[in-house]
Amino acid sequence: MRRFNLATLVLVCLSITHAQADLTNPGFETGSLLPWYNARDLYGLIESWNVTSADAHSGGYSATNVGNGELRQDFAGIPVGQIVELSYWLKEPQMASTAFDFFYSDGSGDERIFPLSTSDWEFFDVTSQLSPGKELVGFSVWGFYSGSGSESRTYLDDVTLRTVPVPVPAAGILGGLGLGAASWMLRRKDAVRPTAE
């Protein structure tokens, strides 16, 4: 029984992994924008991005704005090859379009615009739009500007950034300790085994 428990401990130690940090405050459930921030305003923003409880895809809060303003979050660089999902939920009653930007460690950026197909909450997985071989250091989403003076309110929620889990360096050390302990237990058992007469 003792040998089984020790083997289980070794397997657990060897399998410990750690996912890189997700976005901070991805669903705005702190009740504030931070560390998201209002960035560029291209056409005269009517209402800056803020947190609201008036509508949410999940939880009690979402971010909202009126007009073509950019909501951005910066973070430590993540190699694009390690990103398995970058997505968000957006609601825009006028069903116009959604725009988002990627920011890379080499100073380059990339913007994409997609049409909306519903006036309700819509899911956008933008992972495939990332540039291979680069390191992502920021992401932003834009509110919508129609140019007509009657701007649409935009809601943003549940922004997800998931990365491939990477092994924790200490896991190898723990695994080595577990194997050493298992070896010691087996030697100890052999040493006290009674000899046949």
Polypeptide structure, described:
It is built from two helices and twelve strands; from the N terminus they run αββββββββββββα. It is α+β, with helices and mostly antiparallel strands. It has two domains: 1-18 and 167-197; 20-164, Jelly Rolls (Sandwich), CATH 2.60.120.260. 21% of the residues are buried.
Provide the gyration radius in Å: 25 Å
Q: Might you state the CATH topology name of the largest domain?
A: Jelly Rolls
Name the shape in a single word.
globular
- Count of individual helical segments: 2
Q: For this structure, what is the CATH class of the largest domain?
A: Mainly Beta
Tell me the fraction of residues in β-strands, as a range. 35-45%
Structural class: alpha+beta
Helical amount among residues, as a percent range? Answer: 10-25%
Distance between the termini: 27 Å
Count the beta strands. Answer: 12
Low-pLDDT stretches: 6-20
